[in-house]
Amino acid sequence: MTDKPGVETRFEQGLYASRWLMAPMYLGLAVSLGMLMVIFFKEMAYYLPQTLDMPADQAILAVLTLIDLSLAGNLLLIVLFSGYENFVSKFDFDTGTDRPAWMGKVDFSGLKMKLIASIVAISGIHLLKVFMSLGKGDPAHAASAETIRWMVIIHLTFVASGVLLALMDWLTSKAKEH
Protein backbone atom coordinates (compact mmCIF):
# COMPACT_ATOMS: atom_id res chain seq x y z
CA MET A 1 0.00 0.00 0.00
CA THR A 2 1.42 3.35 -1.01
CA ASP A 3 1.11 6.54 0.98
CA LYS A 4 -0.58 9.56 -0.53
CA PRO A 5 1.60 12.52 -1.45
CA GLY A 6 1.65 15.30 1.15
CA VAL A 7 -0.06 17.74 -1.22
CA GLU A 8 -3.00 15.39 -1.73
CA THR A 9 -3.37 14.80 2.00
CA ARG A 10 -3.32 18.54 2.79
CA PHE A 11 -5.80 19.19 -0.04
CA GLU A 12 -8.20 16.56 1.32
CA GLN A 13 -7.84 17.93 4.86
CA GLY A 14 -8.63 21.40 3.52
CA LEU A 15 -11.71 20.09 1.72
CA TYR A 16 -12.84 18.32 4.87
CA ALA A 17 -12.31 21.45 6.96
CA SER A 18 -14.36 23.50 4.47
CA ARG A 19 -17.51 22.01 5.97
CA TRP A 20 -17.11 24.62 8.71
CA LEU A 21 -17.99 27.28 6.13
CA MET A 22 -21.58 26.10 6.64
CA ALA A 23 -21.51 26.97 10.38
CA PRO A 24 -22.24 30.71 9.86
CA MET A 25 -25.21 29.72 7.68
CA TYR A 26 -26.65 27.64 10.52
CA LEU A 27 -26.08 30.59 12.86
CA GLY A 28 -28.04 32.70 10.36
CA LEU A 29 -30.87 30.17 10.51
CA ALA A 30 -30.90 30.49 14.30
CA VAL A 31 -31.23 34.28 13.88
CA SER A 32 -34.07 33.75 11.39
CA LEU A 33 -35.79 31.57 14.00
CA GLY A 34 -35.68 34.61 16.26
CA MET A 35 -37.21 36.67 13.44
CA LEU A 36 -40.06 34.17 13.15
CA MET A 37 -40.61 34.38 16.89
CA VAL A 38 -40.92 38.18 16.68
CA ILE A 39 -43.45 37.85 13.82
CA PHE A 40 -45.37 35.19 15.79
CA PHE A 41 -45.72 37.53 18.77
CA LYS A 42 -46.58 40.45 16.48
CA GLU A 43 -49.43 38.37 15.00
CA MET A 44 -50.49 37.30 18.49
CA ALA A 45 -50.54 40.93 19.65
CA TYR A 46 -52.64 41.84 16.61
CA TYR A 47 -55.25 39.10 17.12
CA LEU A 48 -55.53 39.02 20.94
CA PRO A 49 -57.41 42.33 21.33
CA GLN A 50 -59.90 41.21 18.67
CA THR A 51 -60.63 37.83 20.23
CA LEU A 52 -63.92 38.71 21.91
CA ASP A 53 -65.36 40.36 18.78
CA MET A 54 -63.92 37.92 16.25
CA PRO A 55 -66.23 35.56 14.33
CA ALA A 56 -65.31 31.87 14.44
CA ASP A 57 -64.01 31.72 10.88
CA GLN A 58 -61.69 34.66 11.48
CA ALA A 59 -60.49 33.04 14.72
CA ILE A 60 -59.69 29.88 12.77
CA LEU A 61 -57.74 31.95 10.24
CA ALA A 62 -55.81 33.60 13.07
CA VAL A 63 -54.98 30.23 14.60
CA LEU A 64 -53.95 28.87 11.19
CA THR A 65 -51.59 31.83 10.80
CA LEU A 66 -49.97 31.00 14.14
CA ILE A 67 -49.77 27.31 13.26
CA ASP A 68 -48.19 28.24 9.95
CA LEU A 69 -45.50 30.25 11.72
CA SER A 70 -44.83 27.47 14.21
CA LEU A 71 -44.51 24.92 11.38
CA ALA A 72 -42.02 27.22 9.66
CA GLY A 73 -40.11 27.41 12.97
CA ASN A 74 -40.15 23.62 13.29
CA LEU A 75 -38.87 23.35 9.73
CA LEU A 76 -36.06 25.76 10.56
CA LEU A 77 -35.08 23.72 13.62
CA ILE A 78 -35.05 20.49 11.64
CA VAL A 79 -32.81 22.01 8.98
CA LEU A 80 -30.63 23.71 11.58
CA PHE A 81 -30.01 20.69 13.80
CA SER A 82 -30.01 17.97 11.17
CA GLY A 83 -27.96 19.97 8.71
CA TYR A 84 -25.36 20.87 11.31
CA GLU A 85 -25.09 17.30 12.61
CA ASN A 86 -25.06 15.72 9.14
CA PHE A 87 -22.72 18.13 7.40
CA VAL A 88 -20.61 20.00 9.97
CA SER A 89 -20.19 18.33 13.36
CA LYS A 90 -22.05 16.24 15.92
CA PHE A 91 -23.36 17.95 19.04
CA ASP A 92 -21.00 16.53 21.64
CA PHE A 93 -22.51 17.95 24.82
CA ASP A 94 -24.95 16.19 27.10
CA THR A 95 -28.43 17.50 26.35
CA GLY A 96 -29.95 15.10 28.85
CA THR A 97 -33.51 13.87 28.45
CA ASP A 98 -34.51 17.13 26.78
CA ARG A 99 -32.87 16.12 23.49
CA PRO A 100 -35.47 15.57 20.73
CA ALA A 101 -35.67 11.88 19.78
CA TRP A 102 -34.98 12.56 16.09
CA MET A 103 -31.74 14.48 16.69
CA GLY A 104 -28.70 12.58 15.53
CA LYS A 105 -30.90 10.04 13.75
CA VAL A 106 -32.16 12.07 10.79
CA ASP A 107 -30.01 11.33 7.76
CA PHE A 108 -30.19 13.23 4.48
CA SER A 109 -33.08 11.05 3.27
CA GLY A 110 -35.03 11.63 6.49
CA LEU A 111 -34.25 15.34 6.31
CA LYS A 112 -35.69 15.50 2.78
CA MET A 113 -38.88 13.78 3.92
CA LYS A 114 -39.30 16.04 6.95
CA LEU A 115 -38.71 19.10 4.77
CA ILE A 116 -41.22 18.12 2.10
CA ALA A 117 -43.80 17.13 4.74
CA SER A 118 -43.42 20.54 6.41
CA ILE A 119 -43.63 22.34 3.07
CA VAL A 120 -46.80 20.43 2.15
CA ALA A 121 -48.33 21.28 5.54
CA ILE A 122 -47.43 24.98 5.20
CA SER A 123 -48.75 25.06 1.63
CA GLY A 124 -51.95 23.32 2.73
CA ILE A 125 -52.49 25.86 5.51
CA HIS A 126 -52.03 28.76 3.08
CA LEU A 127 -54.50 27.17 0.70
CA LEU A 128 -57.01 26.56 3.50
CA LYS A 129 -56.70 30.20 4.61
CA VAL A 130 -57.46 31.36 1.04
CA PHE A 131 -60.44 29.01 0.75
CA MET A 132 -61.83 30.16 4.11
CA SER A 133 -61.61 33.80 3.08
CA LEU A 134 -63.60 33.22 -0.14
CA GLY A 135 -66.93 35.02 -0.23
CA LYS A 136 -66.18 37.14 2.83
CA GLY A 137 -66.34 40.32 0.76
CA ASP A 138 -62.94 41.53 1.97
CA PRO A 139 -61.25 42.81 -1.20
CA ALA A 140 -57.94 43.26 0.62
CA HIS A 141 -57.68 39.50 1.19
CA ALA A 142 -59.56 38.28 -1.88
CA ALA A 143 -57.70 35.96 -4.22
CA SER A 144 -58.41 35.73 -7.91
CA ALA A 145 -59.43 32.45 -9.51
CA GLU A 146 -56.06 32.43 -11.28
CA THR A 147 -54.19 32.83 -7.99
CA ILE A 148 -56.18 30.03 -6.38
CA ARG A 149 -55.62 27.78 -9.39
CA TRP A 150 -51.85 28.34 -9.16
CA MET A 151 -51.88 27.77 -5.40
CA VAL A 152 -53.64 24.43 -5.91
CA ILE A 153 -51.22 23.47 -8.70
CA ILE A 154 -48.22 24.37 -6.55
CA HIS A 155 -49.64 22.51 -3.55
CA LEU A 156 -50.29 19.40 -5.65
CA THR A 157 -46.76 19.69 -7.03
CA PHE A 158 -45.41 19.67 -3.46
CA VAL A 159 -47.58 16.64 -2.63
CA ALA A 160 -46.46 14.79 -5.79
CA SER A 161 -42.83 15.67 -5.03
CA GLY A 162 -43.20 14.24 -1.54
CA VAL A 163 -44.74 11.03 -2.86
CA LEU A 164 -42.02 10.68 -5.49
CA LEU A 165 -39.25 11.33 -2.93
CA ALA A 166 -40.76 8.71 -0.63
CA LEU A 167 -41.02 6.27 -3.54
CA MET A 168 -37.38 6.89 -4.51
CA ASP A 169 -36.25 6.32 -0.91
CA TRP A 170 -38.32 3.14 -0.72
CA LEU A 171 -36.86 1.87 -4.00
CA THR A 172 -33.34 2.72 -2.85
CA SER A 173 -33.86 0.83 0.41
CA LYS A 174 -35.23 -2.19 -1.50
CA ALA A 175 -32.23 -2.11 -3.84
CA LYS A 176 -29.83 -2.10 -0.83
CA GLU A 177 -31.56 -5.19 0.57
CA HIS A 178 -30.72 -7.22 -2.53
From TrEMBL:
Topology versus the membrane: Multi-pass membrane protein
Keyword Secreted recorded: no
InterPro entries associated with the record: UPF0114, UPF0114_bac
TM region(s), chain numbering: 20-40, 60-81, 115-135, 147-168
Highest taxon above the source species: Bacteria
Compartment(s) where it occurs, according to its Swiss-Prot or TrEMBL record: Cell membrane
Keywords (A to Z) from UniProt: Cell membrane, Membrane, Transmembrane, Transmembrane helix
Family of the protein in this entry: Belongs to the UPF0114 family.
Classification via NCBIfam families: HI0507 (TIGR00645)
PANTHER family named in the record: UPF0114 PROTEIN YQHA
This protein's name: UPF0114 protein ACFOD6_19985
Species of origin: Tabrizicola soli
